[in-house]
Design a protein that fits this description.
This protein is α+β, with helices and mostly antiparallel strands and about 70 residues long. About 20% of the residues lie in helices and about 20% in strands. The two termini are about 20 Å apart.
Amino acid sequence: MKELVRTAAVILSHAEQAVTLNRKLIPGTRTAEFIRLLGDVPAYLPLSGRTKEFNGNAQCVVGCGEN
């Protein structure tokens, strides 16, 4: 997939499935599998109450922490 799109980073969206617990990705979810398939492409989970900022190179520069 990444060869087709050449994505620098992925900001995930709602997956109609609970994917986090205590701000951590839940193993075995569709989102966890999607992130695994991305390989070395960084993936960022949306977390309630946390704002993230990115630079022009798709690098997270604010609010990154632990995804």
